[in-house]
Amino acid sequence: MIYFDNAATTQVYPDVLKTYTEVASKIWGNPSSLHSLGNQASRILEASRKQIADLLGKKSSEIFFTSGGTEGDNWVIKGVAFERAHLGKHVIVSSIEHPAVKESALWLRSQGFEVDLAPVTRDGFVDVEKLEDLIRPDTILVSIMAANNEIGSIQPIKDISALLEKYPTVSFHVDAVQAIGKMPLVDFLTERVDFATFSGHKFHSVRGVGFIFAKEGKKISPLLTGGGQESDKRSTTENVAGIAATAKALRLVLDQFEAGQHRLLAMKKIILEELSTYPDVTIFSQMEGFLPNILTFGIKNVRGEVTVHAFEDHQIYISTTSACSSKAGKPAGTLLAMGIPQKLAQTAVRISLDQENDMSQVEQFLTIFKQIYAQTQKVR
Fold first, then answer.
1. Which of 69, 89, 183, 343 fits a disulfide with 179 by CB distance 3.0 to 4.6 angstroms?
2. 252, 323, 324, 372: the active-site residue
């Protein structure tokens, strides 16, 4: 079995699973309880929070736990909008955001907000000049992903950060779900970023755990009210075992960052160079300016889901771009935003590598691709 769908979810590291199991079985008190079992859980919770904060170069008071990326994105987009509505009701997100951001922003329209979608170039990068043209006196929030989940294009967060220095009243959110372990922290977690979203299962932690960074002094409306957890920002009993596991996973992934980059780039380069030799293959992801682990391509006149299932027959697992929308059968929204014709966008499939993959798997993938390409000759 070859798993090339790591942008959808990653396998839990054994050491991370061990941490989860040990905490879940031994530290099972409610961290809000006053007794000693509660205090044990609270200490684990806060130690995990501090570890994550230290790894990111932030303060513990700036880390808030969630159930994952979708919740985090919803919370920031809606929470910042409602908190700052008295200052203005204009929000900007890019046209290639994950649905958790884009749909949250579009929902705000039903609540009386105005939303603009910042355009991207034909290569899938936010146009910073056109983004600036959209900023108005009543703009309260700009949200741009660190790296695109469908094609892997790395967004110009540093340039946008420099632009927003001129607009200090505008909150800046970065969806960093795909970035951890694939990009240097300084490239997407700049000093100008006010909020950022993370999801544990994208970097070898368990599912159902994530966190947001909220810069000290930046206000956001509570996501859930009731119990007062997470400094009254998200009231629900914390998943202590999952949080401890996520802190462990983050440390492991960041410790392996440089070695992982070289490994991913080497595998991607070989696949890209080989696929580029086929005349009826369109490559949507390149090396320069893209994540080292994501490569999106399409076979002429072959729908993405057909390609996915053809590889699955050989126990090779890839996806039709975003896992969140793949079952809906929709073409990649990112490609459409880039101006790619719908018929061509419908052919797109995504390979997303991990440093746990190896060259033998790459060779097997390319061998099977050659067979599938030959089988589709009549369609092409």
1. 183
2. 324
Tokens linked to 63 = 């880390």
DSSP β-bridge partners for residue 198: 211
What CATH number does the domain containing 320 carry? 3.90.1150.10
The structure tokens listed for 328 are 């809906």
Print the SS3 string covering 19-30: HHHHHHHHCCCC
What 3-state DSSP class applies to 105? helix
Sequence-distant (6+) residues with CB within 8 A of 341 are none
64 plus 201 within the same structural domain? yes
Are 52 and 153 part of one and the same domain?
yes
Number of domains in the chain: 2
Question: Residue 67: how many CB atoms within 10 A of its CB?
Answer: 18
Q: What are phi and psi of 213, to 5 degrees?
A: -100, 125
Burial of 170 (0-12, 13-18, 19+ CB in 10 A): buried
Looking at the structure, do residues 157 and 186 belong to the same domain, yes or no?
Answer: yes
Closest by CA to 139, choosing from 87, 99, 187, is 87
Phi-psi region of 14 (alpha: psi -120 to 50; beta: other; left: phi over 0): alpha
In order of 50, 80, 172, 175, 187, the CA distances from 193 in angstroms are 19, 13, 5, 11, 11
Partners of 333 in beta bridges: none
Residue 170 CA from chain centroid, whole number: 22
Helix or strand or coil: residue 141? strand
Q: Does residue 324 have an active-site annotation?
A: yes
Domain encompassing residue 191: 14-255
Residues 216 and 263 in one domain: no
The 10s digit of each residue's pLDDT in 108-154 is: 999 999 999 999 999 999 999 999 999 999 999 999 999 999 999 99
Kindly state whether residues 122 and 228 are assigned to the same domain.
yes
pTM confidence score: 0.94
Same domain, 90 and 178: yes
How far apart CA 24 and CA 2 sit, in angstroms, is 31
> Tokens 């996973």 belong to which residue?
249
Tell me, yes or no, whether 208 and 274 share the same domain: no
Contact of 173 with 220, CB cutoff 8 Å: no
pLDDT tier at 272, thresholds 50, 70, 90: very high
